[in-house]
Amino acid sequence: MRIAIVTAISAFGSDRDTGPLCEALAAIGIATDHVAWDDPTVSWGRFDAALLRSPWNYSEQRPAFIGWTQRVARATRLLNPAHVVAWNTDKRYLAELGASGLAVVESHFIAPEQVIDALPDWDEFVVKPSVGAGSKGAARFRRSDHEAALVHARQLQAQGAHVLVQPYLADVDHVGETALVYFDGRFSHAVRKAALLGDDGSRRCSQSAPGVISPCEADAGQRGLAEAVLREAGQLLALQRPLAYARVDLLPSPSGPQLLELELTEPSVFLGSGDGAAARFAEAIEAHLQAG
């Protein structure tokens, strides 16, 4: 078997998970080619599957990316599937998950054509586009920065974006964000991510900077919420089996963990932070290929 490890032309060599994953796949007899979704010369039908890993420029051209996933899904098996990608690449899915009663960070969405006169009255909050990756376009504001926040939101609207406004949960500054990784529906490992947005509205650091990511233990409350989120997503998406990979990002709050994002498209899965994680990921991919 041979699968395509899908990146973007601009992201070749950027994904730290690719090396360990390709080695683990080779160990079970699955060959890999590292190819870009935005390379028009690739013949996708020659692969047994295409695995999304680092197509990180999708947010800048989402309609083209969604169209590409649909074409590739007709030529080979796409992991994760195209309809999952279409749903998951716009954070408006948070409203659907929140409507089910899950603990989701409160999320307000503003359409591009909607007039914005005011934003939710929180001490601190984040304004970002509903389509984005790596905190791009996200900015943190205080109540006293309300006018600057309005300007930022309107700038996002002018770019055609739906705007997402969420309260800033301050516990993340000293506890961090917890990301739980699942392969084929089974928990693999968890990492702690340091807060990325500074209190001056700037970005503190890159996710790839030393010390930003560290292994951690997920507690029962975090595991319970993550697995409830995956179950609900499976029902919303009418999935017949668990997805090959998923990452559930949680923030701490006084009332317990809350869902920040459910990453089902191209998440870093931090294989270097979990013993045996690369082998578990490879086995999940093999299981999906064998399922036909």
Automatic annotation (TrEMBL):
<keyword id="KW-0547">Nucleotide-binding</keyword>
<dbReference type="GO" id="GO:0003824">
    <property type="term" value="F:catalytic activity"/>
</dbReference>
<feature type="domain" description="ATP-grasp">
    <location>
        <begin position="94"/>
        <end position="290"/>
    </location>
</feature>
<dbReference type="InterPro" id="IPR053191">
    <property type="entry name" value="DcsG_Biosynth_Enzyme"/>
</dbReference>
<dbReference type="GO" id="GO:0005524">
    <property type="term" value="F:ATP binding"/>
</dbReference>
<dbReference type="GO" id="GO:0046872">
    <property type="term" value="F:metal ion binding"/>
</dbReference>
<protein>
    <recommendedName>
        <fullName>ATP-grasp domain-containing protein</fullName>
    </recommendedName>
</protein>
<keyword id="KW-0067">ATP-binding</keyword>
<dbReference type="InterPro" id="IPR011761">
    <property type="entry name" value="ATP-grasp"/>
</dbReference>
<dbReference type="InterPro" id="IPR013815">
    <property type="entry name" value="ATP_grasp_subdomain_1"/>
</dbReference>
